[in-house]
Structure formats: C-alpha cells, structure tokens
C-alpha cells in the first residue's frame, strides 16, 4: 500500500501504525503526539488524527486501492465514531467502538471524578494552593512504554503528566479559590490511576516569633515519660495552636535552647513553630497570638508572621552563630572582694574558652571540645559570697561550667582564675541575637 502507511515517519503514518497495533481512544492516541501543536488537548489531537486517517483511507479507496478498503474495514471500530458514516455506507452495517487498551475509554471520566473528589478534599483541608501528583498501578506504565516504543512516538507525554495537568486544570476551573502553585503549595493531591484512590499530603504551617520563659523547670520540647511529662514545656504552652489549626502535632524549632532551670528573658529567643497536618490554615493573627499565649505567666510568645521550611533550616544551622546575654547568680566559697570581681571582669573580656561537653549532659551529647568566646562579664556583688553577673558570650557556650570549671573540662573558668570555688545557682538568658542582626 502506498500513501499514509508507507509514509511511516509522517504523523498520520505513525498514528495509523499505532491503531493497527493497539485500540486507542482519542486521548491515548493524541498523547503519543502531545508535544506537537500547542494549546490543544490530547483528545483534540487524537480526534484530528482519526478523522485524517479516515479521509486518507477513503481517498485511496476512491483511487481503487483495495488494501486501503481492507485496512479501513479492519480499523473502523478503532476509528469510531469518525469511521461510522463511511463504514455504514460501505457495508450497510452498524458499527460499535473497540475499547482503548490503556484506559478502556474511561480516562475523561477518571479525570472528571478525580478533579471533583480532589477539589472536595482540598476544600475540606482549607487548602488554596496545591499541586497534583499521580501514581500508576496495575502495570499501566509498562504498557505505555511498550506502545511508545512500538510506535516510535518521540513527541509523546506520559499518562501521568496528562492526568496531573488535566486534573489540576479542572480543579482550578470547578473549585473556586483553588490554584495550582508549584513554588509554594500548601498540599500535594496524590491520585492513583486507574484505582482512583486519592490522598492529601498537607504541608505544615510555620510561624516565626520569639518566646520568653518566665519560670524555671520548663523544658523547650515536650518531654513525655510513662507517668506524664517530665516538665512543663514551651511546646505544651503552645498547644492552643493545635486546636486552633486542628493540627496533629506541634514542633518547636528554636535558635538554641536554655537549660530547663534557666529562664529566657530580655529579648526572648527566636523560634519557628511548626504545625503538622493542619485542617484549618487561615486564622486571624490575633487568634494565633491569643492561642500561643494561653499560659502567659510562664511562657510568653510574640508572633512575627508566617515562615517557610527553608527558614527552619537556616535557624537550625545558625545556632552557633549567635550572641547570647545571660544573667547568672553566682555563689563563691571565699569572700568576694573588689579585686576578685575586677579580676573576673578584666580577664573575661574577649576571652576564648576551651570547653569539653559538660559532665551533666555527657549521657546525651557527644564528648567534643568546643571553642567559644566570652565577650564581656559585668558583676554586681549582692552579699559577701554572692554576686550577679551579666555575661555576653558566643552561642553554644555552657555558662554553668564557665563559672565552675567542670573539674577542668572548661578552661579558663571563674573558679580557676580566682582560685575560689564558684557555682552558678541561677541562670537566665536575657538576650539572643543572630549574627545577621549584630552585623546589620
Ligand atoms: Zn484511552
């Protein structure tokens, strides 16, 4: 046969070849040529090709090509409904379609249903910005690869990307306020083809702010034990946000942490609150502030605004690059003379401290040697044996050990340079500054 079949490399030639091998609906045929032409659906591509093939075969028949007639009669069910008129004219018989080998002719329906159910699911979770993900089951991907290879379709796309795009488009048009957003989606709608199962992967909500810990014996993270939490925690103080956002879990990402028995005063500590799997996303900021400050007497929170996952990473990496200000109540075994106080203040100006991991945290932290700087220490005597010191130091320095020396694991220390045993009995953090804020 001459004509379309011989022009195997032409688009109609390839389409005819595909249909001789496999029954394909308009969409699944058109998808083999998805990257040719612009602004059309694959259904339009498939329909155009099938009409063209009918016309081409009809032309050959009129020119007396018997093979063209055989091919047409054989392919007519696969060219349905565009072949119907000519088929009935030639044979006097009625024609029915042959089901598509990939989708059984149900892809349009599938896309419509997935979009309807998907839009409902997104709305139920208060989502407005989303992306669609598609997963194939039942060997569809192998079948698709086989057909693509047999037809040598170089300009096709996968059924995955067609479903992803078409469902996304349809949801945008039926679900008001729903937008596909690749940069900052609030959720991923996962669709399985052909089962039609849907899942929603909801992204966390993040709030940026600061906290002040006004009481002692409060841990940062929730610390469960078989008999209840070990301490009251900052996270627990924020639990009002869980019900506000109907979220499953709350995680606090803070820039460092103070000891359980230290307060966090002054500037407060920068933090990001993460709410996992929220069902309510949009909440007035006043309600957020109120929910975060339910136990203001112990934990006070300031909310600066929303944050991104990327900022969480920056916070965590930035822990060591902070300057912290502490207020320490220190008890000395020998009387605190003016000269001892002056010696402490002079010696610890811009002083580098070598510090091994303190004995008290060795059970949960690796034993490493760190170098941290003390910038200034200012002391005020309270009694003969006690003083209050304001210490400004690089983030990551353990202050209690800077005072005691931790049996030589921290050097130099206040005990070491005064020759009098000293101990920090109360510690508060009164300032946390990021390097960026300091240099700015
Ligand atoms: Zn199909």
Description of the molecule:
- With 440 residues, the protein is of the alpha+beta class.
- It has four domains: 89 residues, no CATH class; 95 residues, THUMP superfamily (THUMP fold, 2-Layer Sandwich); 115 residues, Alpha-Beta Plaits, CATH 3.30.70.2510; 118 residues, Alpha-Beta Plaits (2-Layer Sandwich).
- The chain is 35% helix and 28% strand.
- Strands 5, 10, 11, 12, 13, 14, 15, 16, 17 and 18 form a ten-stranded mixed beta sheet that branches. Strands 2-1-3-4 form a four-stranded mixed beta sheet.
- The protein is elongated.
- The protein starts with 10 loop residues before the first helix and ends with a helix.
- The relative contact order is 0.09.
- The structure holds zinc ion.
- Zinc ion binds next to helix 2.
Q: What's the overall average pLDDT, rounded?
A: 92
Low-confidence stretches at least 5 residues in length (pLDDT < 50)?
A: 1-5
What ligands does this structure carry?
Answer: zinc ion
Q: Quick one: how many beta strands?
A: 18
Estimate the helix proportion, in percent: 25-40%
Named CATH architecture of the largest domain: 2-Layer Sandwich
What is the CATH third-level topology name of the largest domain? Alpha-Beta Plaits
Strand content: 25-35%
Q: How many domains, in number, for the residues?
A: 4
Largest sheet report: 10 strands, mixed
């Amino acid at each position: 046969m001459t004509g379309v079949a011989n022009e195997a490399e032409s688009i109609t030639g390839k389409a005819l070849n595909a249909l001789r091998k496999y029954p394909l609906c308009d969409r699944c045929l058109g998808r083999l040529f998805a990257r040719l032409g612009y602004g059309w659906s694959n259904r339009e591509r498939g329909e155009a090709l099938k009409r063209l093939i009918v016309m081409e075969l009809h032309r050959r028949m009129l020119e007396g090509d018997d093979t063209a007639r055989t091919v047409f009669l054989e392919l007519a069910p696969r060219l349905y409904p565009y072949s119907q008129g000519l088929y009935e004219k030639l044979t006097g018989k009625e024609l029915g379609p042959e089901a598509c080998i990939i989708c059984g002719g149900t892809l349009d329906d599938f896309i419509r249903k997935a979009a309807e159910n998907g839009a409902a699911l997104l709305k139920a979770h208060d989502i407005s910005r989303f992306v669609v993900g598609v997963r194939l089951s039942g060997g569809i991907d192998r079948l698709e690869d086989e057909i693509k290879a047999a037809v040598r379709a170089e300009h096709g796309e996968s059924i995955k990307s067609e479903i992803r795009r078409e469902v996304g488009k349809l949801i945008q048009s039926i679900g008001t306020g729903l937008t596909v957003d690749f940069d900052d989606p609030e959720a991923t709608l996962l669709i399985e083809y052909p089962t039609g199962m849907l899942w929603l992967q909801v992204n966390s909500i993040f709030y940026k702010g600061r906290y002040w810990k006004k009481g002692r014996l409060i841990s940062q993270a929730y610390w469960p034990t078989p008999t209840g939490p070990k301490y009251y925690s900052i996270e627990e103080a924020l639990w009002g946000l869980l019900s506000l956002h109907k979220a499953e879990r709350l995680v606090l990402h803070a820039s460092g942490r103070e000891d359980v028995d230290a307060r966090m005063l002054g500037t407060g500590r920068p933090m990001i609150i993460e709410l996992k799997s929220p069902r309510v996303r949009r909440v007035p900021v006043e309600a957020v502030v109120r929910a975060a400050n339910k136990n203001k007497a112990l934990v006070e929170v300031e909310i600066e605004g929303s944050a991104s996952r990327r900022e969480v990473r920056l916070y965590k990496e930035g822990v060591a690059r902070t300057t912290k200000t502490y207020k320490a109540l220190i008890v000395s075994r020998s009387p605190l003379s003016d000269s001892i106080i002056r010696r402490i203040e002079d010696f610890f100006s811009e002083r580098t401290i070598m510090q091994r991991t303190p004995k008290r945290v060795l059970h949960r932290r690796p034993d490493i040697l760190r170098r941290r700087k003390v910038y200034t220490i200012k002391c005020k005597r309270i009694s003969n044996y006690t003083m209050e010191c304001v210490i400004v130091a690089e983030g990551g320095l353990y202050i209690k050990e800077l005072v005691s020396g931790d049996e030589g694991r921290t050097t130099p220390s206040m005990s070491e340079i005064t020759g009098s045993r000293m101990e920090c009995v109360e510690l508060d953090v009164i300032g946390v500054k990021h390097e960026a804020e300091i240099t700015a």
